[in-house]
Amino acid sequence: MLTIRDLKVSAGGRMLFEGASMTVNYGERVALVGPNGAGKSTLFSIILRENDPDSGVMERDAWTMVGYLPQEGEVVGEETVMDVATGRAGELPALEARLHELEKTGSVDSPEYLEAHAKHEALSNPQVEAKAKKILRGLGYRDTDYDRKAKELSGGWVMRAHLSRLLVMEPDLLLLDEPTNHLDLLSLLWLQQYLKNYSGAVLLISHDRQFMDEIVQSVYEIAEKKLHSFTGNYTDYLRQKEERYEQQNASYKNQQKEIEALQEFADRFRSVASKASQAMSKLKQIERMELIEKPVPPKKPFRFQIPQPPRIGQRAMTLEGIHMAYGATQVYRGLDLTVERDERTVLVGPNGAGKSTLLKILAGILDFQKGTRTPGLNAKIGYFSQHRSATLDPNKNVLQEVMESGKDLSENEARGILGSFLFRKDDIYKKTDILSGGEKTRLNLIKFLVDPPNLLLMDEPTTHLDIHSVESLTLALSSYGGTLVFISHDVHFIRKLATKVLHVNNGQVTPYPGGYDYFLEKTAAGDERAAITA
Predict the structure, then answer these.
(1) Dihedrals phi, psi of 338, to nearest 5 degrees
(2) CA distance 329 to 433
(3) Residue 183 CA, distance from chain mean position
(4) pLDDT tens column, 221-244
(5) Residue 452 DSSP label
(6) Which of 190, 241, 309, 399 has its CA at a distance of 20 to 30 angstroms from the CA of residue 125?
(7) How much of the chain is helix, strand and coil, in % rounded to 5?
(8) What pLDDT, in 10s, does the model give residues 361-385?
(9) How far lies 143's CA from each of 82, 118, 277, 305, in Å?
(10) 391 by DSSP, 3-state: which?
(11) Are 378 and 517 within 8 A, CB to CB?
């Protein structure tokens, strides 16, 4: 279906790929992994024929239909959610226009015409709207949302409508760039199950290791300008990568010992007449060797210890009789909730159920209409939102922000922590006002970790982090000595941290005093989707 051979690609004066090769077969589910900036999105653009490589071959079967979900999607005009999901707005008119152009030029046998025709047929099917509704429901839309103007919705909901359109078309090859970024846990689990049973091939970029573990059958890693193939899911890839390193490192060390012994013999006896020819033979033996390069060890998550926060009272936070409404929309009526010291609580439930609202009430940054909120004794509360640029001083650089947050932090320690969260070399001297949204999120996260509160409230803390940074955060929070309440759609992250689950839906908060697997067991006997909506 897809073959890449000896690919060479440079961008901005930097070589991304050199001699890179990969293959994706029909029905295969493949993950593409590598650090930020390694070239994952660039490779997607080449597969989509948006950019050409410097050299090498990218071949797609002529009849292969490719669908692509970028990280961000735009809405223009007055199209409804259903218009986006069925392609009536944008996709279908564009396909019709392109088909007419190709027919006029006599290019009806070209790969582009065949693919455009297949997409047009898929979106013109009489059953397309019924199919779109089924997929939209799975991704969290209500029936009343179908006729809403897409421009009225957040970017995350618009991306779900674009994803619905792709799944309606059922491409032979589905390219997904961080598909879980804008999904709540319910929608993520639905998509996970859908892709498990998807008949076409899937090539995805993701930072969600649990998602990849559930879906993919093989992994290609971008490293040292090559594409390295691994069989199995993400966990299998990590194990195989470690094994390959150990084998290559052992071979490298053995060869170095052999070279050292040969060189020692040559140096010792080259001036001895009776053994000079043997010495020269040893040197030629070294010259004929195919030298093994010293392997680069697998990147490990950065480990650092979060300072011990001051001890909070046994009841870290108490809510009694909370009434909360946005205008006529009632979110909570008479909510009672106690957060106990040392709990690690995850809030789960569908989008719009009130998870972020509850977190803001706990943080004391959202006024409610009725009830009482009582922080625990000696409470030092920290609220980590997805939108925290206002907390940064635009006149300070990244390193200064971190150094001033951690009172006993050395500069070397600060640099190490910044590096683990993708701030490297000159990045640490950037002024905060020129940072991207993702960089600001990561910087605020670091500030929490170096000066932790004893009640930490976090809303989607893993967004904008790559897998290694997520692992660093997970390790740090595992040793955190305070009380944690968080929202996340990263199942691996939840499983590693949560000791209690609060299910939020329809104004009700139901506690489950155990980890995420305990929650699944108690609610739906392993049916993850039913468990979330119980």
Answers:
(1) -125, 130
(2) 36
(3) 11
(4) 999 899 999 999 999 999 999 999
(5) -
(6) 190
(7) 45, 25, 35
(8) 999 999 999 999 999 999 999 998 8
(9) 10, 28, 87, 48
(10) helix
(11) no
Q: For residue 232, how far is the Cα from the chain centroid?
A: 19
Give the separation between CA 58 and CA 69, rounded to whole angstroms.
20
Residue where the block lists tokens 């949560």? 498
Which single residue is written with the structure tokens 């790559």?
A: 466
* 322-333 confidence digits (pLDDT tens): 999 998 889 999
Which amino acid type is present at position 162? H
**Parallel/antiparallel/unpaired status of strands 500-505 and 508-512:** antiparallel
State the Cα–Cα distance between residues 214 and 201, nearest whole angstrom.
15
The Cα 345–Cα 226 span in angstroms is 41
Cα angle, residue 422 at apex, residues 419 and 426 outer, rounded to 5°: 70
CB–CB of 503/509 below 8 Å?
yes
To 5 degrees, how large is the angle CA 148–CA 153–CA 157?
105
Q: Are 482 and 312 in contact (CB under 8 A)?
A: yes
Q: CB–CB of 406/476 below 8 Å?
A: no
CB atoms within 10 A of CB 358: 26
pLDDT band at 442; cut points 50, 70, 90: confident
Strands 455-459 and 201-205: unpaired
